[in-house]
Structures
1.
Amino acid sequence: MMNRRTFIAQAGMFVASGTLAPAFGWPQTQPDFRLEIAPLQLEIATGKVIHTVAYNGRVPGPLIRWLEGKPIIIDVVNRTEIPEIVHWHGLQIPSEMDGAAEEGSPMIPPGGQFRYRFTPRPAGFRWYHTHAFAGHDLKLGTYTGQFGCFFIDPRRDAGAYDQELFLTLHDWNAYLAAGGDFSMDAAYDYSTIDDRMLGYAAPVKVREGQRLLLHVLNASASMMHWLALAGHDLTVVAMDGNPVPTPLSTPAIRLGPAERIDVLVSMNHPGIWILGETRDQFRKAGMGTVIEYANQQGKPRWIDPPETLWDYRHFANPQPTTRQPDQVVPLRFESKFHGQGAVATWTINGKSFPHTDAIKLREGQRYRLQMMNRSGDDHPLHLHRHTFEVTSFNSEPVAGLYKDVVVVPGNATVEADFTANNPGATLFHCHNQTHMDFGFMTLFRYV
């Protein structure tokens, strides 16, 4: 039986022989960036060392900041013992450059190198990460430190700010544990913001009266995360790199795996505060950092924020979109339980990848994805190479909220529209690595 690992291996063999070799024959132009994938011993706290894989010997990888519409060349070298690949998440680029073997992008063999060439668009907060299969081996794929931020200028006006920070959330030392239905899913020993546990990174220095712009990425392989800055409100100005129609202040923000949120914070409460996960178990596992006002002394303080109901609709236009789709695409998500202690497989319309039915697209038409979650799990759904507009939550219409990942809650239905404006094979999947590896994906193909 063919599974995702077999599919990628066969696709990688085909593409490497047909596409990777000519890449080495390109003119010897100097790259704009170079990423080296290699093992790393990462000390996230004193005496706590994570054996992982990362880019350029650091976590997160280097920030790539680039002008929208300006061509870029990125060389990637694989210093590991397994094939690897880099996905440019949220960018509208050709399939062969997107970094997903299922779309035809080449796997980079051990010791090999590949040159990515594309023109970054659209503007905003994107990111890059491995798109390799992990399966039961929770030291591969997005369980590793292979991720980094990619910001495409010119950014939309977020308002005046005095300091800008990129923050990445990640969980470490994954292992399989029983989930709610007694099937197995990933759990973790440690959590970090960037590469350090709470208390082991230099504090972020601020001054009273400043406005702080935070670009926050959830780079976890599978965990939802809540984040708050004790004593302060966070004003959400963009999601997945796209400005929200209704900027709104909130005590805490929630990010599913692969989501990004841009927030503005007015530094109006002097002290030494913890920016961290709102749930004690994750904050105590390390997910936090310290924000320190000038001329303040003492220990970092945490204050539980008020209970927050996270609802995308609060940031969208309440009126329905005036554009109607040319076609509605029903997508039903279910799990198949294989017994206590086993990993569940996932289906889209009753089939698991690579045996799912490819969805045919015609260039220029508008499609409405009707995402019907028939499981109790929340799923962060990602569409490659396109941006979609969220148009309804459980039959309540909204408009103007543009994303590339949307969390579909358990037993809920979310609809999102996109225009087929980027021809080529296009992957759609759950961004929970375990769910993706065990069937939760399908391909869209232009005809």
2.
Amino acid sequence: MKKPLGVLAEFSSSATLMYAAENLRDNGYKKFDCHSPFPIHGMDAAMGMKRSHLGFIIAFFAILGGLIGFGLQSWSHSIAYPIIISGKPYFAWQSYIIITFELFVLFAAFAAVFGMFKLNRLPMFHHPVFYSDRFSPKVTNDGFYVSIEANDPKFEPDSTADFLKSIGGSNVEILEEDA
């Protein structure tokens, strides 16, 4: 018995793909993705995607890194090892700026990389669209596709395939794996 993993439909252009994304969003589909060989301006809004939280994650960790860098230097120079070097006061904050900036950037970079991995659910070693013979050779060249995952609340294999055909999808196929 074969278990359905999703439905894949091909569209003729970026405009029809945008139209399909708007229709899927307006009809209550949540777990779908649009695949094209190049970025399409406005596709995020057409799919109903919210603004990414990655910027807030990066800002939080950048500030945290800066505070850690400044705090560690302040503590070590003023409290742990209070030694007067070259006549500087114990709290010579001007000399702390370089390390503070470096840790600010370091924490921001790590937050960007690991935050992006988490928010994009990476690494994803396999996706149901790779079961399609038409998808792989065309999507990076001249193919425009919509895939709807089986865990979408509105997913029903036959009715979802019919809906994709009604909004202009061609070569609609139900993606399945052996259960």
3.
Amino acid sequence: MNLADYLHFVTRAGSLEELWAVHVEQMAGYGFDRLIYGNTVYRTATSLGDPDDFIILSNHGKEYLDGFLHSGLYHHAPMLHWALNNEGAASWRMIEQMRDSRTMTGNERKVYEFNQRMGMKAGYTVSFRSVSFRSKGAISLAARAGMSQDQVDAIWDRMGADIELMNNVAHLKILTLPYTPPNRGLTPRQREALEWVGDGKTTQDIALLMGLTPGTVEKHLRLAREALSVDTTAQAVLKAALHNQMYVMEA
């Protein structure tokens, strides 16, 4: 797709799956064939929040994701550290510079060596502008195997503005689409009960509106809290809203 066609597609995308599949294909057309997108709205001064609450989208293989994400290597990734403190796009050349100047920490070197073994040798990272100190999103664009950082930088010199624009628009669209973290999905009844709570209704009100007993409403709310791993119904409403699981238009 050209830039205009891509932007038109993104504005009409109705699901994360639809958007992500096309975005992966679009980036591959520029030579970036392995992507990791991540976003959190639970960032603090010392943590990015519970990894189970992150929005993570990737077309990397299981071996890489297990090593980088699930084992926690990402905590020490140099480009993630850069993304947390910057906005815009950055070449992975800075990793080579850290290696050559011997300024890498021991943990950063472990990430570097892991990426080298997995063929993650050249690429770019785009860090998105945040609207809240608790939110942060970024995407890692890894170049095809065999491409050098010189080649990647040359591509970015020619097309980087368009590539960065497409990733920023995709990020903004992702923030509007429903996302269900693994093992944290809500049933339609749980979602409906939370929606009524969000509208300020009492348990008695919700029971009448849903045609249930108050005890059954409380059960749906309890299960919703458990599904979202929170302690209170207010927290459940907030978390469901942040992941766009509230007021969903069913297909």
